[in-house]
Amino acid sequence: MPPFHSVTAAGTLTLSKDGRQIFEVDLAGVQQCVTPGHKQDELDIQFMDGDGTVPREDQVVCSMRLWVPGGQASDLQTRILKQSSASSSTGEVLVEFDRDQGTFIMPKNRYGVEMYSTFLRMHGNVYDFKIKYDDINKFYMLEKPMGRYGSEVKFFFFIICLDKPVRQGQQTYPFLVWQTHDEDTELAMNLEEAAIEEKYPGAGLAPAMEGALHKQIGKLFKVLSGKTVFAGSRKFRSAAGDQCVNCSHGQRTGLLYPNDKSFVFLHQPTLVIEYSDVDYVEFVHAPGAQTKSFELVVAKKASAGGKLLKFGAIEKKETAAIAEFLQTKEAWFTVRNYKPEAVVDDDDFSEDEEDGDFGSNDGSAVSPRGSACSLHGRVEAAHLVPSPALTHLTDRTPRLTFATPYPRLQAATAALTTLTTKAGATRRTAATRRSPGSQR
């Protein structure tokens, strides 16, 4: 005979067999009660993680799975949810977002969102979450890159940072990531205008609202929860003009947002790194001049765990933008191993058409044979070989100067300057020795 499950009016789940009670569970601590997968004869019950006062050495029940034969699982699930805090609601729904108004990418699913005065509820196909505003730390609203082909609709990542992670199966989620857009949307608030003005004075809310969806989401979450919504930095832009750069973390590719007070990596795993927790940031370049990417290492302080977080495969063209932005944050941390590219002062070169070597369309100059110098950018090599063409240079030949501290490049500049000077001297000596009537 299988065990018998019963739910009492006092909110207790009792498991008994042959008339003897095996154990009982207080349903007030139930966070989820679902039928896992397609198993209609099982129930997965998940409990709240507590308030953090439980000692680490204590063992706490996080979840339990019950076998409920005879097609009674659905009925038992309904009775458990009625007695648990998972379905308890105080007050009325103030604002509702349906599943088509955005997709959650962490945890990955479509959820309908209901906002109450003190908490929000997420309804999915299998899992439901009830999240108190007091358990939310802050929010981020970050713009998603437009991509190669662009789009008329802009997409945004709305990140909900939780003090108490939600649980889905064996996975916990300290961050909820909701992808939304900027299309105009009409929303209705289930309050009269007088009640809105009384509870949320000067917040800009109304019984009927219309505007870009991401802005309305940010405003509603900020007003109802009382928590800050952070946007991407206005001072950082990638080479493509985005708020972030493409990179990899571990085996996953994602987006790294250097914000005004934190790094945010999306989306597996989602990371938020406060600048106040960072000891230093280091640029790591692989050996070889042909490397097209670099790695950014973020070292956390010992008080914040002391971990090294590595973000690789960042395109080399993003180096200057990231470094210049991070150098403005040196009140929080230091920036290591950043070496600016060699820069050439264009005013040192004539723009006359006859100086084709110096004013080519690609912004580069042709060096004497055997050398490999680039006047706009870094010098790839400093190997100089004298050429007969130098005999045509005069004292008016422009001197090559490089704004670089590297000894090899300074030596190359000095060598080339010496050759041009000798060529001019040779030409003047030949001219003085030439007789007025001689034929050349």
Describe the overall structure.
This protein is α+β, with helices and mostly antiparallel strands. It has 4 domains: 4-83, Roll (PH-domain like); 95-231, PH-domain like (Roll), CATH 2.30.29.150; 245-336, PH-domain like (Roll), CATH 2.30.29; 346-433, no CATH class. It is 15% helix and 34% strand. The chain has 5 helices and 26 strands. It has helices at 73-83, 193-199, 213-225, 319-327, 407-433, and strands at 4-7, 12-17, 20-26, 30-34, 42-47, 63-67, 95-97, 103-106, 108-109, 112-115, 119-123, 128-132, 136-143, 155-168, 171-181, 184-188, 208-212, 229-231, 245-249, 252-258, 262-266, 271-274, 278-285, 293-300, 308-315, 334-336. The chain is globular and about 80 Å long. The termini are far apart.
Provide the fold topology.
Elements: E1 4-7, E2 12-17, E3 20-26, E4 30-34, E5 42-47, E6 63-67, H1 73-83, E7 95-97, E8 103-106, E9 108-109, E10 112-115, E11 119-123, E12 128-132, E13 136-143, E14 155-168, E15 171-181, E16 184-188, H2 193-199, E17 208-212, H3 213-225, E18 229-231, E19 245-249, E20 252-258, E21 262-266, E22 271-274, E23 278-285, E24 293-300, E25 308-315, H4 319-327, E26 334-336, H5 407-433
Parallel strand pairs: 13-18, 23-26
Antiparallel strand pairs: 1-2, 2-3, 4-5, 5-6, 7-10, 8-9, 8-15, 10-11, 11-12, 13-14, 14-15, 16-17, 19-20, 20-21, 21-22, 23-24, 24-25
